[in-house]
Design goal:
single chain, mainly alpha
Length: 439
């Protein structure tokens, strides 16, 4: 088998495996959502949503996006040449998150805007711990992705979800914000131990870098790459979750819990794009020719796009049917849901393309669509917030649409690819997909 065919075969195998795992996780997430919406009070769920939003917010903003750097450098230079620089960077970012997040939460403790003055000190401490644990976990699973250990990666994600459902069942029986948030942190710690074992374990020969790449990686080079990715990652986070923070600020945690259901439902459309982009980036980074990168990107990008477009109306009507019947307390989430679903359809276009651009070594190009998306979001939310949660959702959808369309334009210009190639399959691509389904 030629190298190109082997790479495509490996990508297909790992993509299907990762998508299958993510699909199972999605079903389990629906079970989790059912439990939360059926038996957990919206206020308790809103408290947990606040905990998750702030923890992930600190992680996203302060982590310098080192995970993207980890995947790229481990895939290209291997772990043996990356280990020293990675340890140094992770230690520095760990200290940064600890100091800054603690300081910010202490300052917000006396403010009424986000209702932190009502929260016990252990709630704020849990947010900081969550950000730190997630940092370490993201670095470890980034190594697994860079080394193409998707079996371990998928097992970790699946175990996390299963244990989380057990925790949610307990919370449904004995509601407690404290148990929920600290239990979430304990699950992250368990995942770190599993990831550490996966990094150390090898069934075959360890990968060897190309001769020109067989040298120790400088920490400065990793930081430079991370910073190029960081701006776009932070802006993408802001673009996605700005509406949640505004809902929390304008209303309360109960409304936040309702809005969070709509946001979570819409994000289910990202399962396949995320699975493919996670698998594809390490392979693209290891390729030496742009033509091979472009061919692989186009095949999987258009496949993801069509499947996402087909899934969108199915998801909407399923939610419209089930939520009022089974989860009447959260019926308000149906208002913002269709707008958020439309936004996630557009962003699915960009997911694979952005990872492809990053694998070319040019993650800074992803800054442009995210800047335009955030600008659109800020202007739109200012104009539409008076319409309530629906207006906030429309603003988010518009910004995601702008971000997705701009990503398409940038990829096509940078890779010299006609736009129609992102939507029209070639005979070679049809043959490859046919071979996949035959297997």
């Amino acid at each position: 088998m030629s190298d190109a065919k082997k790479i495509r075969s490996d990508v297909v195998r790992d993509s299907i495996s990762t998508f299958g795992t993510n699909a199972v996780i999605s079903v389990l997430s629906l079970v989790q959502i059912f439990i939360q919406m059926r038996w957990i009070d919206p206020t308790v769920k809103g408290d947990n949503t606040s905990f998750t939003n702030w923890g992930s917010g600190f992680l996203t903003i302060l982590s310098l996006s080192i995970t993207s750097s980890v995947v790229y450098f481990v895939a290209r230079y291997t772990m043996k040449n990356t280990r020293a620089a990675l340890a140094k960077i992770t230690g520095g970012v760990f200290a940064l998150i600890l100091v800054v997040s603690t300081t910010v939460l202490i300052l917000l403790r006396n403010q009424s805007l986000f209702q932190f003055q009502k929260m016990p000190i252990n709630f704020l401490a849990a947010i900081v711990v969550n950000a730190l644990l997630c940092l370490v976990l993201n670095v470890f699973v980034g190594v697994l992705r860079g080394e193409n250990k998707f079996k371990s990666y998928n097992i970790i994600n699946l175990v996390q979800k299963i244990v989380m459902i057990v925790l949610v069942i307990y919370i449904a029986c004995r509601p407690s914000t404290t148990v929920w948030i600290w239990g979430t942190n304990a699950i992250a710690a368990i995942a770190i131990v599993m990831a550490d074992y996966g990094m150390r374990r090898w069934n075959g020969r360890k990968p060897q870098p190309a001769p020109e790449d067989d040298h120790p990686v400088e920490a400065g080079n990793m930081v430079a790459y991370s910073l190029k990715s960081h701006v776009s990652n932070v802006l993408t986070y802001i673009n996605t979750y700005l509406g949640s923070y505004i809902v929390q600020g304008l209303y309360d945690n109960t409304k936040l819990g309702v809005y969070g259901v709509a946001l979570t439902a819409g994000q289910q459309l990202c399962i396949l794009p995320n699975a493919v982009s996670q698998v594809i980036m390490s392979r693209l980074a290891a390729m030496n020719t742009d033509s091979d990168r472009r061919r692989l990107t186009l095949t999987f990008s258009k496949t993801v796009t069509y499947l996402t477009v087909v899934s969108a109306p199915i998801l909407y009507w399923a939610c419209r049917l089930l939520i009022p019947w089974i989860f009447p307390k959260y019926a308000g989430s149906l208002g913002p849901l269709p707008y958020l679903i439309c936004g996630y359809v557009f962003i699915s276009f960009a997911t694979v393309l952005n990872n492809s651009i990053a694998a070319y070594g040019r993650p800074e190009l992803n800054i442009i669509p995210t800047v335009l998306g955030v600008a659109t979001n800020c202007v739109s939310v200012f104009l539409l917030a008076p319409l309530g949660m629906n207006g906030i959702a429309i603003a988010t959808a518009l910004s995601l649409a702008v971000q997705g369309i701009t990503s398409i334009v940038i990829f096509c210009v940078y890779s010299h690819t006609p736009v129609y190639r992102l939507f029209v399959f070639t005979k070679e691509e049809f043959a490859m997909l046919k071979g996949v389904f035959k297997k």
